[in-house]
Every structure is written in structure tokens, then in C-alpha cells.
Amino acid sequence: MSISPEEWKQEQARVDLIRDKLTRQLLQLEPNVGQLKDQVVDIRKHFWDEVTVNLANDDDVLETFLSMKQQAEILSERERSHRHLKKLADRMNRLLPTPYFGRIDFKEDGSGGSERVYVGVSSFLDEDGETFLVYDWRTPIASLYYDFPPGPGEYDTPGGLIRGDIELKRQFIIRNGRIEFLFDTGMMIGDELLQEVLSKGAGSQMKTIVATIQKEQNRIIRNDRTRMLIVQGAAGSGKTSAALQRVAYLLYKHRTTLKADQMVLFSPNPLFNSYVSTVLPELGEENMQQTTFQDYLHHRLGRKFDIEDPFEQIEYVLQDEANKPDYPARIDGIRYKASADFLRLIQRYRDHLGQEDMIFRDYRFRGRVLISHEQMLAQFYSYDPSIRLPNKVVLLKEWLLRELKVLEQEERKADWVREELNYLDNEQYHQAYSRLRNRQQDDEAGFDDADQEEELLKAMIVKEKFKPLRSRTRNLRFVDVPALYRKLFEDRGLAQRLADPEPLPRMWEEICAYTLGRLSRSELPYEDATPYLYLQETIEGFRTNTIVRHVLVDEAQDYSPFQFEFLKRLFPRARMTVLGDFNQAIFAHSTTLQGQTPVADLYGEEETERIVLHRSYRSTKEIVEFTRGMLQDGMDIEPFQREGGKPQVTTAPMPADLVRRMAGDIAALHAEGHLSIGIICKTAAESELAYNELLGTADLRLIRKDTPSFEKGVLVIPAYLAKGVEFDAVLLYDASAANYSRETQRKLFYTACTRAMHRLYLYSAGPLSPFVTALDPSTYELHSIHT
Ligand SMILES: Nc1ncnc2c1ncn2[C@@H]1O[C@H](COP(=O)(O)OP(=O)(O)OP(=O)(O)O)[C@@H](O)[C@H]1O
Q: What's the pLDDT at 443?
């Protein structure tokens, strides 16, 4: 709806007024921030000058303590005030160029007039400290802006539901204090603004979407009811964006109780971490913790095993299977080991181990068995059967420590100890002598120094030698977890009984051979790492983190039920937000987020809410129409009405012709202003090849799994590392049938193509992938180069 020049002028005048007020308040505030900072520095520097330290008697100690406490309180009060004012000033500085992006005029039922509510990234109050000149987008009233078109609307407050009428809904684009775009909208968030925002180029970092949050995304952001929120959303539907704004919302809503470091985001890879790391700071919030599941596995098992990472696994899965006799068994194994069936098998194994079959390691000392595994077994199974497995392990640990104490004392009499006495160095003698002196000071009676010294030295020698046994006991290393895990693959009868009533996978024999082979080389395949750790913790007791209150899992389709079960146990006090797209499940195991799944069962029906996003914002209409054709249920995906060229598919008999074509396309894209370009490949090897082929034609960067952050430019990248990110233009390096024809590769192909915002190019030397030839030919343009 058009806005009269007069109204535009009035709105600009208001922007100017708000900026004036911001500047004025900042002028008052900033010197105070500076002063407080100086005071904090000063107090820290002279902390001890103000404290009278006197420890002569109890009263003096108390006085010293009180004076220290007082000084510490002054310091922490100044630090708090400084932090508070600094945050306030930062917020105002952030508002200066763009004070707000939306306005609604809301007439509450039963009230006289309507209120103008201007919505921005944070609230700004007039000098009276009461009048809201700008409302933070996370305030209850601001939800009207996202949830309703003009007309009746309502919002939730702690005091109850407020109903009324939205008389006007206006949107702004304000840059450096100038209104560049202004319109009234009859819809939720007008498509004009979204068009404008989405037509921009992709950057090396994700952007905030607060000005254009869509209603269904707002449901994700503000959902605060259930323990578990599951979001299944099409590629580019804003899952990651919604998750990040959700973090900002929760930090605001629960600002007195929730801190950023109590929230953890599990990301698909470290690159993604850097891609999303600027969103929260842009919104004036601190970043939450970010990690990957692999990091956690590595942290827990990295010292014992050479753990395969998920990218090595996917490389294996994607490579040509012709020369790999293990291939079908491994794929079968990957699926099975990620399944709820295998989880149940391990849980039954835990119950079984409570009754029999535990495996302990002998304690050996100087070539002989000190405590045998049989003794441990007898002790272990002598405990009451009702005691839980990890508690029995703790009891056994305590028993072992007691046994070691007795054995250690006996050992002092052994001949080898006497012999060792001769080899002690001066330092050790000196130590024994001073200990003896100390003892004698405590004990008036006096000693025969020589005998005492010898006894003490012997005790020291044995104690030192028993040290590793004690530490092994404290770390529960007497439980042979690797052997227990191996046993599952060695004892066919046992596995069969534990799996019952579910069947073991068809290729169980081969899976066992493969797994045992890898374990014998101290290698832990990625598919075994979580089950192994789960078994270990189920025996030894689960580690828990009770500080974290919220866990977000992005690209959740790539997590197994096992991993979810694990996260639930690891963070017992946390709520969970799980975001994914089943159509982008690129790993051989995958989790569906639709229907009754192990993920949905994690916290039970009552505690779980599910939201499905159908609309895709990232790609142009043409690209969505092309890519959704690759999926069975693709027609559910709605493109956002943003136009661009149709995807371009080029075939040629010779790869060299395609490389020339690609170089030309990159140059043309640059000329059109598309600076972020992704050349997406299937594997790391293909990426290396593409990089070398195209070297010199553009400013290329090869992205590997250990590349720490994205940079602008032409990136050559394997599809599995491009997960979650986007480019102005995507060039699919090899879309041939030879490269993509297996059904298991469909989702990888789809994921690669859906990374494109504005332009998509596919190249194929020889016949094209059936994923393209099966599409409606009107959804793309085909070019054939003939040489
Ligand atoms: N409401 C919105 N306003 C503006 N831009 C949006 C909105 N929602 C999504 N986008 C944009 O759409 C693109 C895709 O968003 P995002 O990466 O969050 O989607 P996703 O569902 O996580 O995608 P994928 O699963 O394909 O990785 C981003 O550029 C994001 O900024």
C-alpha cells in the first residue's frame, strides 16, 4: 500500500527524533561508562591498599576477612554497574543506524485510543524511563507484528491474553538513519520486505531475520512450553535462522535466570559454527556454546581409540564400492548400529551383565597376578542383585582400593623392596628424613631413627609402585569395556539372545568380522563410537552436565536415535530443540523427524511438540521448482515468490570443455554481482580435482573438513561440508550419471543443489544423472556442447 509523501516525511521526522534522543542519552551515558571502568581498574589495582591485613589473633583475622569482603563487594558492585551501563550503551549504539523496522498501531479492547508500537532489535525508553519509544522484538506486544495481519490480534502476557485490533502494520528499511523503504502491509510480514531482504547476496556469515520473521517461524522462536521441540523443515525454510533467533528470545525472556553459556548448539561441522557465529552478537546477545558431536566423542574416547570422524565415514560410503568387499556389510552395520534396535540390544546387555558375564582385567604386579579377574567377578556378583550395575562397579572400586591397601602393606616385606633401597637417590633419602623429623616433632616419645627410616623408605617405594594400580582403580579401568564391546561381535549366541525379539541384521556375520578387524587395530569406526560410549557409561554411570539448560541440535536428521538418547542423558536438566530435514539425510544412517520416531519418544508425547515448515526462502522459485522434483513428497515444498533464471544444465563429451564453460560461467556470475559462489563436489577427492582443474580461472579456495571458517569468494567444497550454508550461485561440478545414480545418493544431490540462492548450474561429461533426467524438462535449460 502506498504511503503519501507527507506521511513519509513524518516517519522520517520520527526517526530523526529518536536518533536525537539516542544521541543525547548516549552523551550522558558514555562518560559514566568510562568513569565506572576507571573505577573498576582502580579498585582492582589498589585492592590490597584498602584491606587491613592482620592475622595476629582470631579477632584480627575476622576483621581482615570482613575488610576483604567489603572491598570485594564494592568491586563487584562497580563491575555490575559497568556491565549494565555498557550493555545499555551498546544497545543504543546498535539502534542508531536502524532504530526499528516495524510499526503496528494497536487498539486494545476496551481502551480509548490506539498505541503506536515501533519494533526494533532492542527496547529504547524515553528519558522518563517509562515510555517505550522502541519495543524489543522479543517483548510480548511485538509478537503481534509477526503473528497477525491488520485486523483482530492478540498476544500473551504474564497477566493473561490481551486482545484488540491492529489498525496499521507498517514496515521500514532504515539505513544510517534514512528511511529507504516504507510500506503498509495487508499481510503478516509483507512479501515486499522479504523480497528485498532475500534478493541480497549471500555472505560468509549468516544474517539475522528479526525484521521478517514469518508466523510459523515465530512459533518456533517463542515456543516455551514443551521439553522437546522438533522442527522438520524443507531446505532453506529458515530452521537454523529460527533456532538462532530462538536462542536470543529465550535469553531475553529468561534474562534473570538463563545465561548464554547454559545453551549449547550442536552443529554439523566446525565450519558451520563459524558461519552462524555472528548472528547473536548482531542481536546484542552473547554467543551460546557451539560444538559438534564428534568433538564430544573425541573428548571422551580420543585417548583410547583412533576414532573415525563422520566425514571419513561418508567418504567411504560415497566412494566406488567396486574394490571394497566389506562395503555391503559395513553399510548394513552403519544402519543397524544407529538403530533403536541396537540401542535396545545394549540395554539388554546391561541387564545381562548385572547377572553374569562381566569382564574385568587382572591386576598384575611385577609379573604376577595380584588380584585376578576371577576374584573380581566373585566379589562383583556377591553384591545384592538389585543393586544397579554402575553402583556395583563403584562398590567393586571401593573393595579394590581396600584390597590394594592390604596388599601394599604386605608387599613392603618383599625382597625386591630391600634391594631397591640400595638404589635410592639422595633426594628420596632426604624426603624420608624430613618426614621422619616431622613425625618425631609430633610425637614426643622418640624413635629408633635407622629402623624407622628404613620402614618409611620401604613404604614410599611400594606406594610409588602401587600408584598406577590405584589410579587405574579410581578411573574404573578394571572394567574391560573394549572386551565387553567386542564380545557382542564375538559371541553369536549372546548377540542373538540380546537382540530378541528383533532380528539381527542380515549380514551380521560379516558385520562382526568387519567390526572386530577394526577394533583389533584400536580403530573405532564412527558408527561404533556412540554405542561404545553408551555401553561404557551404562556400566560406569552416565556423565551428566546439569548446568546446560537448553540444547539445540541442527541437521538433526544426521543423528541416530542412539545419539539422541545420549544427549538426553548427558543434559538431564535441558530442554531440547531439534531441527532437521529428512530429505537432506546424507549419512547412511538417518533419523526421520516425522511420525512416531525414537526422537519423538525421547521425552514422551506430552512433552513434545512438532512444527513443520513447508516454505522455502533461500532459493528462487525456479530453483525450488527444479529441486523439489527430486523428492517424493517435494510438492509440499512451497517456493517463495522470488524469481531468477532457471537452473542451467550443461553436458559435453569431454570434461575439459566443461571446465572452460565453468570458468566462463563464474566470470559471468561475477559480472552480475554474485560474489559468493560454491563449486560443490561429491567427495574430498573430487573437490581436489575440481580445484586443480579450475585453478587460475578464478580466486579459488579449497574447503576441507578442517578449514576453520568461510571466506568470501569461489569455494570448492564437498557437499557434506556445505550442509547448512548457502551461496549466491552453486555450480555442481559433476552431475553425471556415473557420479550420482544410486538411490542413496539422491539426498546428497538434493542437498548440494539446494545450497543455491539465485543461480544453479549443473555440469556433466557424458550421460546426466537420472536425478535430473527424471525431472520435468521445463524446470531447467539444457545445453549440449559438441566438440
Ligand atoms: N523470515 C525470514 N526472513 C528473511 N530471510 C529468511 C527468513 N527465513 C529464512 N530466511 C533466509 O533463508 C535462508 C535459509 O535459511 P536457513 O539457513 O535458516 O534455512 P534452513 O532451513 O536451516 O536450511 P537448510 O536446512 O537447507 O540448511 C537464509 O538466507 C535465511 O536468512
A: 58
Neighbour-count burial of 541, counting CB atoms closer than 10 A to its CB (0-12 exposed, 13-18 middle, 19+ buried): middle
For ligand 1, atom 23: residue with the closest CA? 236
Same-domain pairing of 574 and 703:
no
Q: 726: closest CA among 769, 674, 682, 648?
A: 674
Q: Confirm whether residue 34 is marked as ligand binding.
A: no
Nine-digit cell at 15?
526517526
**Residue 329 sits in which domain range?**
291-354+481-613
Arithmetic mean of pLDDT, 2-6:
84
Tell me, yes or no, whether 646 lies in a domain.
Answer: yes
* 13/89 same-domain check: yes
pLDDT value, residue 546: 93
Q: Is residue 490 part of a domain?
A: yes
Same domain, 666 and 779: yes
Residues 6+ apart with CB under 8 A from 271: 703, 707, 708, 709, 710, 721, 725
Nearest atom in ligand 1 to 207's CA: 31
Q: Whose CA is nearest to atom 25 of ligand 1?
A: 235
DSSP per position, 364-379: EETTEEEE-HHHHHHH
Which atom of ligand 1 approaches the CA of 723 most closely? 27
Residue 783 has pLDDT above 70, yes or no: yes
Q: Which domain CATH number covers 775?
A: 3.40.50.300
549 with 504, same domain? yes
237 labelled binding-site residue? yes
Has residue 626 got a pLDDT over 90?
yes
Statement to judge: residues 635 and 740 lie in one domain: yes
Question: For 109-113, 243-247, 778-782, which range has the lowest pLDDT when averaged over its residues?
Answer: 109-113
* Residues lining ligand 1, Cβ inside 6 A: 194, 197-198, 207, 209, 212-214, 217, 233, 235-241, 581, 584, 617-618, 724, 726, 754
CA of 276 to the centre of ligand 1 (A): 12
Amino acid in the structure at residue 338: A
Question: Averaged over 307-329, what is the pLDDT?
Answer: 85
CB atoms within 10 A of CB 12: 15
Say whether both 312 and 384 belong to one domain: no
For residue 211, which atom of ligand 1 is closest to its CA?
3
Q: Mean of the pLDDT values across residues 10-17?
A: 96
Cell, residue 594:
516425522
CA distance 193 to 181: 8
**Among protein residues, the one whose CA lies closest to atom 14 of ligand 1:** 236
Is residue 238 part of an annotated ligand binding site?
Answer: yes
**Does 234 belong to an annotated binding site?**
yes
Domain count, the chain: 5
The answer to the question of residue 434 being in a domain is: no
Q: State which of 558, 582, 613 marks the end of a domain.
A: 613
* Choice from 146, 147, 171, 618 to test ligand 1 binding pocket (greatest atom count within 8 A of CB): 618
Q: Show which of 74, 96, 118 is a domain's final residue.
A: 96
C-alpha cell at 586: 546424507
Annotated ligand binding at 752? The verdict is no
Pocket test for ligand 1, best of 193, 231, 240 (most atoms within 8 A of CB): 240
Whether 216 is in a domain gets the answer no
CA distance 716 to 713: 10
Tell me the pLDDT of the chain averaged across its residues. Answer: 89
Which one is predicted more confidently, 772 or 70? 772
Is 367 a known ligand-binding residue? no
